[in-house]
Amino acid sequence: MSSELLPFQVDLRGVVDLLSRHIYSSPRVFLRELLQNGRDALTARAEFDGGDSARGIRITPLDAGDGEFVLRDDGIGLTASEMTELLSTVGRSSKRDIFDLPRSDYLGQFGIGLLSCFMVADRIVIRSRSARGGAAVEWVGLGDGTFSVREVTDELPIGTSVHLTPRFDQSDLLTTASVLSLATTFGEFLPVPVRVDLPGGGVEVITRDAPFLGGSPDDTLAYGRDLLGAEPFDAIEIDVPATGTRGYAYVLPFSPPPGARQASRVYLGRMLLGERIDDVLPEWAFFVRTVIDSTGLSPTASRESLVDDESLEYTRAEIGATLRRWVMELGLQAPHLLSQFVATHDIALKALVLHDDELARFITKWLSVETSAGRMTIDTLVRRFPEVRYAETVDEFRQLASFARSDRPIVNGGYVYDSEIARLLPTLFEGVTAQRVDVADELDRLAEPPLAERDAAVRLEDRATLALASVECRAVVRGYEPHDLPALYVADDAVFRRIDRSRARGASSGLWGGVLSQVDDFVNASRAAENRPDAVARLCLNWNTPVVRQLAAVDDDAVFARSVHLLYVQALLAGHRPLAVADRALMTTALGDLIQLSVGLTEPAPSPDTDRPA
Ligand SMILES: Nc1ncnc2c1ncn2[C@@H]1O[C@H](COP(=O)(O)OP(=O)(O)OP(=O)(O)O)[C@@H](O)[C@H]1O
């Protein structure tokens, strides 16, 4: 059997429906597509005969004319054969070059834009007279995929008019209020005049110069103010000649939520592509909002986003380079503004220095971190404490900060990027080291009681550990500052995870409880293998406080246990720890006894330790 090459058969009705209703996100875009065709026709006519500034586009909304919507341009126009070839062939466009590539001086390129009109009208009529000569012609296209072309005898001016009779459900979009708003949104910066007829006579010109393309500094800032809804901290000019991209990046005067990538307002050939295009800026650049116009970036077919190609990647990198340069120059020319900027955008800048070695060397010293000795700039930190010590989590920091010596502060590395920044410091500043500290190590480093008192302290540790058996907490005795803090509850992350597991085990049964026990066994075994202390919480009693020394001398076991319990609960509360069931039981009994003793009932209630579950 011989094979024959055949073209695909196409059901036009399906294609028209697919393209007009499914590519575009909203029927509003019909006006953008018509404006775009008008603008391209004017460009083609200017190429043909040199152009004339009086030429433009005129729109007559439904309620400003005689019952139909009309968009007229003074462009190149169409002959009858062009109408058949260009308007009636889906996917055929006159706006590509001999290699069939999109031409950058034209907005259209796909040959489908006109179909968007079927979202608002069932019937499109186009009347045109070509600048190249020939009779005036009329094309009528229907939503069912059929069309007709005929010559008309009317004396039409050169150019094209598109006439739409609205679909029953879409007439609102063709009336004056919508037309003014849509034409302004999409086309206010088009380089050709666009006029809109008003009901009852009168005309409104909706086009104006783009303030972000060579406008005066005042206009440029005013535009930024509108865009941000606040006075911009600064306006940074963007110019990427290789992709014909220009515009402004406005620096936010407030700090946006961390990680929120700023969307950009993007125009292509001065026609709006979208208000929230998010791949124009590098990810780290969330301290600016941008408006750009480009002739070298490519739209997707819906013309609502950009194709992520090399041009876009290059443009993104160039915009990133511009922003970095601005930061560097600000530091050199206006350091007071830089410190203000850093204070507002601390987090964004931390993200930035992690990506960028050169900038890191320059800007890191201006950033600040929280330490146990208060918030300080990195400059101060590395000058005063070149042996930088940091905690990895906020939780560890909080514990460490409560007993860190003021001459050896701890940096809180628990906030976004701060641990990474701490680890970066030795590569940025000579003679600086960075060490992660954990609670158990720091505790071991605290001073033990003096030799003469060591025995008493060890006895205190043993008795207190026994008193805390029901809550699986070990007592240790050390001397530390401040001198009025009798006890600290300390535990590393592994302990908190174990405590969570034991709570979950209490609430579950059978298989799951068994699995959690196995996890505990595994964790304990691996800690032992690594020679690390067991994952138990510790109550660190402060030998420097009179109350702890006195506690060591208490003989009455019941009074001793209650006092240890209260110190334990007090330390938990001071450390913002939630109280578990066993903790609450200790507290209730200890407080109850205290009240009894205070009101004169000398016999404390029987000890709960033996009969209360852990
Ligand atoms: N107002 C007009 N004046 C002259 N020619 C026009 C006009 N409108 C459309 N055309 C012709 O019809 C063709 C198809 O138009 P259509 O809007 O469907 O696609 P396009 O503008 O080429 O591309 P895109 O799909 O990207 O908009 C155009 O390429 C152009 O040659």
From TrEMBL:
Pfam families: HATPase_c_3. It comes from the Bacteria. Keywords: ATP-binding, Chaperone, Nucleotide-binding. The keyword Cell cycle does not apply. ATP binds at residues 33, 37, 73, 160. One of its GO terms (molecular function) is ATP-dependent protein folding chaperone. PANTHER family: HEAT SHOCK PROTEIN 90 FAMILY MEMBER (PTHR11528). Belongs to the heat shock protein 90 family. This is HSP90 family protein.
